[in-house]
Amino acid sequence: MKAFWQEVKEGKREAPRRKGNGPLKRKVLCPSSWCRRGEVVLIIYPHGEIGFKEPRKRAEYRITTTEAFRQAVLITTNRINVRVKALRKEGYGLGDARRKARKEIL
Fold first, then answer.
1. 8, 30, 91, 101: which has the highest count of C-beta atoms within 10 A?
2. What is the mean pLDDT of each run of 10 residues along the chain (106 residues)?
């Protein structure tokens, strides 16, 4: 391998061509009831979109990365607020409940 790159450096060989920046695809596990088999193909596009589709299916759902981030923040804060409310019913003070909920969820 070292000899190959030495030949490229000296100009005896042409450097290998690299693929362009295309979308990045990965199969990930999804414990949601949204997908049938528990797997989702996650596609990240270079122009700032995220695509989701089921394996061996054509339908693809796309969302921008800014919208995905906004939804993630909203979902997380809603979970924290629900946990704060439950801790308040258990008798915790507001500050203590917020701290404990943040530690549990984040």
1. 101
2. 88 82 89 84 92 91 94 96 97 96 94
